[in-house]
Amino acid sequence: MKTVSEIRQSFLEFFQSKGHTIVESSSLVPENDPTLLFTNAGMNQFKDVFLGQDKRAYTRATTSQRCVRAGGKHNDLENVGYTARHHTFFEMLGNFSFGDYFKQDAIHFAWEFLTSPQWLSLPKERLWVTVYETDDEAYDIWHNEVGVPAERIIRIGDNKNAPYASDNFWQMGDTGPCGPCTEIFYDHGDHIWGGPPGSAEEDGDRYIEIWNVVFMQFNRQADGTMEKLPKPSVDTGMGLERISAVLQHVNSNYEIDIFQTLIKETATILGVSDLDNKSLRVIADHIRSCAYLIADGVVPSNEGRGYVLRRIIRRAVRHGNILGAKAAFFYQLVPTLAKAMGHAGEILTAKQAFIQKTLKAEEDQFARTLERGLALLEDALTKVDNKQLSGEVAFKLYDTYGFPLDLTADVCRERDITIDEAGFEREMTAQRERAKASSNFGTDYNNVIKVDGVTEFKGYEHTETDATVVGLFSNGKAVERIQSGESAVVILDKTAFYGESGGQVGDTGVICAELAQFAVQDTQKYGQVFGHIGQLTSGTLSVGDKVFAQIDAERRHAITLNHSATHLLHAALREVLGDHVAQKGSLVSENVLRFDFSQPEAIAKSDLEEIERIINCKIRENAQVATEIMDLDAAKAKGAMALFGEKYGDRVRVVGMTKFSIELCGGTHVKQTGEIGLFKFISEGAVAAGVRRVEAVTGENAIALLHQQQQVLQQSAELLKTDSASLVEKIQQLQDKSKKVEKELQQLKEKLAAQAGGELAKNAKQINGVNVVVEALENVEAKNLKAMVDDLKNQLGSAIIVFASTADNKVNLIVGVTSDLTNKIKAGELVNLLAQEVGGKGGGRPDMAMAGGSQPENVEKALSAGLAWLKANL
Ligand code: SER
């Protein structure tokens, strides 16, 4: 029996023998394609080749592509665990023709691979095919050339309520390459329920689609129109897991070797014996998507790709909880997975430590709220009306306990309960509104400013320019003229002002006209134009005016130092911590640089020192900083670091500081690294699970920081009458001394309290022959109260003692009962009774109990109630 890894290999070899180039799987994070959340089909990495915008050295390719279908257009997350063949992660085997062969070869190749005794040798009579309703050409090839009988060829039309919306018309997303397809189905046999495609029973598990052969012909536009592709092409996709199930003679994908290995490993880790348990299948599925997503640079977070990853991990952790997991378990599956995946697992082995750390951190974090959230949910589920959980509860679980909505839905689905999703959305919107109301956003000009043309940016070489006003915006709309005192956005035809981007803040400065001055407080980009945001401080300014615009050069210089230092920082972080460091966010301002990056744990102090040391070395090397405009491909070949998910044009700007740091960047930079002067970290911390933030200062700011720190040291040393070298020792001595003094003071207080307690013995009353001391005291601490009670017990031999001490609007209550009396009076019972009177509660042993309360004004009442109770019970 062929293993999954062997089947993958056979496929690639077959197509290699037919002149195809074997291409490696691309990342799950699609490069340069913001329309796509995750890679969800083999053709994604060839999208631009189909569209004629990119060329490769080959016209035939074959791949085994890792895919994730969760969270995006093709979303299978919620079905995992409920069906035999839905997965969040799967591998798609594919062969591609870029304007090379078309329908005929594509169909013959597929048939040969599936049925030839040399390859998969599947029985022909078990194979059925579908074609797009009007695709006579494909029908004829199947029927006349391949010899598939007419009763096993089914035409499928637009069965999804729109033109081209059909099971036999494949499209990547709302836009992009698409075309009619022909699909091949395998009949698993009449012992399984289900009917052929197009029949009423098609959803059963008997006839399973194994291969989709798409004849790529169109580029779908956002408005729905179909533009013809330059050359008809082919894109095929066969689910590796499905074809493996066929070849391994099992109906469910979860029975193929890879899943069985993962299921057994999970069962061993969790001590589960029932290998058919649904939760084991969910976990076995989820570890694949999670491990590969992390390997491809995604880390759990609260938005975008990171949130989908978080949702999948948390769902897996919840299923572990069902199976009785007591501690983090999910991350332990990574080595087994990496091994089971064969060649495709090599990337996991290479990044194993990072993947495991990231998973474990997320598991540990969620474990803290999971139990409490589940308890709340269980309680709510017992009270649901109409089999629907309220949106408020679902939102509370989301907001307070970190339960993604689909996790809550998963729990509900097991009880046949749905969620009021509209209610959930209402709560979510209300929360967003609250957040918006509390933040002080100004007018959002993004949808208002639409100026034809481009602002030419002169700011790499210049700090000032002559320019013409080409647009003015005030109070959220375009205007012809602004008056003194008015706030506005000024658009110029050219500018030296840098518009905020790539983390670098916008420039400030001044725009002068003959009779007017405009103070620029910020600069932003609106499409192709730069908006200078600020206030007209004198005169009037009109569209068409000639102006002279000048940035605050000193501020820009400080920003520039920070930007160049950020590049050195990025490179040094990777050198010291590893290649997993990827930029997640950055802020470059005149005062500070801030850098967020993927990193599962806090950075050790020694590593921070090393990073700082390397950066300062690079600064002292005073290397030349080279900026070059080149093709994206050339930049990549040079090893330039690009950001995940960022869209770059064909021509990019590359900033290099020797070989140490090469990045794609549009920001402003120093000419020589020596200008940065000095780099000092000021903080290191977490921003989200798996993401750390460092902040640092450079140049003048770094020097100022050192001065400030030195001053603190000097002042402290003076105060302590020593020098800065002996400061630590001196502080240590003082701390020891202060601890000693505190201890002595406490002993004294106890002694005094005991003495005071001794005096109180005189006040003892007799109730039915028993000594009773009931006193209201002031400012006696709890532990001293205890000492007083013990002392009184000793003095009186047999007694009941009740104290209420008030301090800072609080009441401390204590009741002591000597052991000969505890059969009649329980201290815990009495103290509770008193506590209720002063708005508190408490308890303790029968011979000694304490309580606290918040209503000192009721102390007298409480003590009288206590006395009355004693009289009644003694
Ligand atoms: N792109 C098609 C699919 O995903 C065939 O590869 O089904």
From TrEMBL:
Pfam family, one: DHHA1
NCBIfam families in the record: alaS
Protein family according to the UniProt entry: Belongs to the class-II aminoacyl-tRNA synthetase family.
GO BP term (any one): alanyl-tRNA aminoacylation
Group of enzyme by EC: ligase
Task performed by this protein: Catalyzes the attachment of alanine to tRNA(Ala) in a two-step reaction: alanine is first activated by ATP to form Ala-AMP and then transferred to the acceptor end of tRNA(Ala). Also edits incorrectly charged Ser-tRNA(Ala) and Gly-tRNA(Ala) via its editing domain.
SMART domains found in the cross-reference section: tRNA_SAD
Keywords: Aminoacyl-tRNA synthetase, ATP-binding, Coiled coil, Cytoplasm, Ligase, Metal-binding, Nucleotide-binding, Protein biosynthesis, RNA-binding, tRNA-binding, Zinc
HAMAP family xrefs: Ala_tRNA_synth_B
CC cofactor note: Binds 1 zinc ion per subunit.
Annotated GO CC locations: cytosol
EC number from the UniProt entry: 6.1.1.7
Boundaries of every Alanyl-transfer RNA synthetases family profile domain copy: 2-708
Domains (record comment): Consists of three domains; the N-terminal catalytic domain, the editing domain and the C-terminal C-Ala domain. The editing domain removes incorrectly charged amino acids, while the C-Ala domain, along with tRNA(Ala), serves as a bridge to cooperatively bring together the editing and aminoacylation centers thus stimulating deacylation of misacylated tRNAs.
Predominant subcellular localization, coarse grouping: cytoplasm
One GO molecular-function entry: ATP binding
The protein's name: Alanine--tRNA ligase
